[in-house]
Amino acid sequence: IDMGALRQRAAAARAASAASGASAAAPAAAPAPEVRPESPEPRLMSGAVDMTPFVRRLEDTGFKTDTVRLLLTKMTVSFAAPDGAANAQWRFIRKILVLPDKLKQPGTNAIKYALNSDEVATVIHEMTHAANTLLASQTAPKGSVAYEHWDAVETIRNDLRASAYFYRYSGFKADEVSGYYMGDAISEVFDAIDEIVFYNTTHAAPPGTDPDMAQGNLLHPTAAALDDQGRAMAANERQVFGRVTVVEDATLEGAVIGWEERPMTKTQMYKNILGLDPPKDRPELLRRLNAADNEWMRDVKRRTLEARRRLAARPR
Prior knowledge:
This protein is mainly α.
């Protein structure tokens, strides 16, 4: 909003009113409202790359970002074609996180806001490596993000060292396991977000309810959904997050690492690595989404209401 233009138009209106000899009994024109535009959001730069959209996306969907923000101050992010067949790279010696150009907002040096879940997994995977290099610490207070990260990776390393096959480079392998796990675990949450948003912005309100219910609050698909896709979604209503398995996916130099997963260690990583405070299950995710008040969530609720009203108006 151009406040200078608003003030000039208001002054001109007052001058015109006075010149016309308006009756004293006529109601006075209301003064122009004092609109205070929001302060521009500070850019979160890491090197020459603007990571603000990624951090905002995490925050908009209910994740905490204090650790991610700290981590970004300790490294440099760049867009480039990663070496070899890797999709992205953490160059730990120079503390550079290399992301593929496909994650860049065209025409800018900023990361995209609307990354898909696989792209989120890529960024989280490499940030997990970066956090292991720059933040994880045996000497940090127990219970802290830094200590719990170190402890989880050390547990995996000791598991791998117990096998003659995995003994070599066990530290690198343990770090890779943690990266694959965190990337998959957080992308699973984003898959659920996409599913919930898609359902609510394309389906009618449940039978017998007001389409305007809860000002567009999101609902989880119920077993009464009429289409096969809705029924498939409904089956995930109580989904618990953080149970992904990477035993056949985590690799180093193309070889499957094959960590025999410890559920407690996976829980430790999910809760602590990167300090994201992720939701424990879908009901908690749904509560967080509905409680959010940000531009993205307001748009989702607007589209949800529009879909419910449009579908409710259709002849049955």
